[in-house]
Amino acid sequence: MPAACNITAPRVSSRLARMSLLAQDIARLKYVSGAREEALRRLGIETVEDLLCHIPRRYLDFSHAYTIEAAPLGSVCTIVATVDRVREKRPRPRMVVTEVSLVDSTGVMQVAFFKQPWISRDLAVGDRLAVMGTVEFAYGFKQMSSPHFEKLDRGAATGSILPVHPVGEGISQAWMRRIVSGALETVASVPDPLPARLRVRRGLMSFARSLRAIHFPSTMGERDFARRRLAYDETLLLQLALRLRNDANLLDVAPIAHVVGPHVEAMRAALPFALTDEQAHAVDDILGDLACGERVMNRLLLGDVGTGKTAVALVALAAVADTGTQACVMAPTGVLAQQYAVKCIPLLAEAGIRAALLTGSTPASERAGIVEDVASGAIDVLFGTHAVLSDDVTFRRLSFVVIDEQHRFGVGQRNALRAKGPGADLLVMSATPIPRTLALSVYGDLETSIIRHRPVEGAGISTRVLDEANHDIAYGAIRDAVAAGQRAYVICPLVSEQDDPDELEDVVGTEDDEQGRARALPELHAVETEVERIARIFPEATVAALHGRLSAAEKDRVIDGFRTGSIDILVSTTVVEVGVDVPDATVMLIENGERFGLATLHQLRGRVGRGSLPGTCFVISRGAGGSKRTVATDRLEALEKTDDGFALAEMDLRLRHEGEILGLRQHGGVTLRFVDLDADADLIEAAHMDAVELLRYAPTLNATATLPLRHRVIERYGDIFKEVSGG
């Protein structure tokens, strides 16, 4: 065993025993029994760590509490006063206003709560109340409208910061604070899982102190410092887990050292344009990994629409021909796989590289020949869909796997393809712009290459957001385009009017839809209905439908017709979001734009303006141009202002939870409780670098200094990591 892995058993055993305190059941804590225990479990709190990660939703800062007289108008203030009177008014039907008069030694303040009738039953004259809100003046009194408030224990003193935890029936704020305080006493001796040198280098608060400070800070600055420490831990553990998971899949696998030779140079020469600096840098990254032979490549190639990721992948694919091995490119849809075949196979052939396409619509006789050629090695590169995962598809020697639109595949599918070539290098590509912080958090096991700029700018795209009353503007543009021999898209969120929007992953809810999706369903456009309506509006045009329920052969027929010009207007779902390249398509109309995320809208509009003619994208949105501001209107406004996909992704991250950007809830339930992906970029970068360094020092995290981290990773992310770490 290497020197770094020598472990002093008694000392390490004691440290791990103290670490295990976090995993204790809450029933062992002081004050937890009966109804309070049941209430905690209803909140999803089962262990001590669950409890300590159940952090306050806000804080009442009594260190800056004002008297009623001193509270400045127009400012958010905390005031502690006594309830003098509680009255309930009903100025109109279904409107309840609870008025509370508060007094202290300096004056009187009126507080109003709207549509919260339970408050009048919860408060009594003489109760001591802390209220936090904006102070206003009207009718001779200082006032607050619907402030945050907290009933205080008789002994609670000002001059401190009081946490307000999320609670439920059966447990009060006071009891939650007592229970958390008792839990903190229990874990006071828990050792810091971070190596001391690393913690000092990053200037982080100690683990035990951060747990106490996040719940009971002495200042709000200390609270912020504690959150950063816990956010760093959360990110580091995720980074380590992702890398260890990858290592678990590569146990006893020998990396393949690819050769970079004449086929790679021939492929460079076959490309119809010179690579940009960003593309060339990405190629160097990938070819360097492929030729290394010391570690299996795991790399993400991230690029906006039209940035030329395919050209980069083509140069890399040529290395398998130089090495005498094979590559497989898997795309999420038959449309995208066919697009790859049309664009790539002729270029590969020009470089002396044999390639074929295999999808679900490949005829049986043709499929048999392709499967035979792949097994014999007569085919160097196989393009395909999920069809390549079939048991009968075997490779003579698969050494390189490329997966496009990575987030559309599960981990199991990715691993199933890699299993066909033990030791195969992996390149995953995505045209969905992802903020670097999110890429590091979600794809922490992958090195990242980014292409931000398009090698050929093209004629460009203009985007206009319209309300539903202005369809005629978009229809006029479609009519002009068709008359000029160009093509147009009409995009709908549903296939059929009977579909449930909740089942469609590309449709997102809007917070302004107060009645929920049930009410919104009749308002959503469906392809099956829209194709008939568009055909009536444009009788001079040939109109066709495209969606995921068509057979693979039918999809191919429609796409070919649209590409060649026998179909003028394509009414489609988001199946065209990636991979459809029709240079003569110049107009797109997106119905129900408020139902799509920024990333999807940006991908969709990237289907027009790809040739020498400019493109126009019209996004129809309910409420567009109105005075009410919502997340949806902010998204659409941003779409109009910029065509920079990465800038839009950063905004999407600020507007929505990180789990919604790429559907993370469907990919392992990744949850980041403490991390702010927008504000914590420096922490995420640091954690990424530190994870790489730690695993370089102790690949199994089994060294004395890293053993507590190993324990934390296994505890949080499951037993799969014991395989790697030897546990």
- Quaternary organisation: single chain
Ends apart, CA distance between termini: 15 Å
Shape, principal axes of CA atoms: globular
What would you report as the Rg, rounded to the nearest angstrom? 30 Å
Strand order of the largest sheet: 6-7-4-3-2-5-8
Number of strands: 22
Estimated share of beta-strand residues: 15-25%
Give average pLDDT, whole number: 83
What does the model show?
This protein has 727 residues and is of the alpha/beta class. 39% of the residues lie in helices and 18% in strands. The chain contains 26 helices and 22 strands. The longest helix is centred in the N-terminal third of the chain and has 30 residues, at 220-249.
Summarize this structure as a short list of keywords or feature phrases:
39% helix; 727 residues; 7-stranded parallel beta sheet; single chain; alpha/beta
Could you provide a short overview of the structure?
With 727 residues, this protein is α/β, with parallel strands linked by helices. Strands 6-7-4-3-2-5-8 form a seven-stranded mixed beta sheet, with no helix packed on it. The chain has a seven-stranded parallel beta sheet with strand order 12-13-11-14-15-10-16, with helices on both faces. A six-stranded parallel beta sheet has the order 17-22-21-18-20-19, sandwiched between helices. Helix 8 (220-249) crosses helix 24 (681-697) and helix 21 runs antiparallel to helix 22 (645-655).
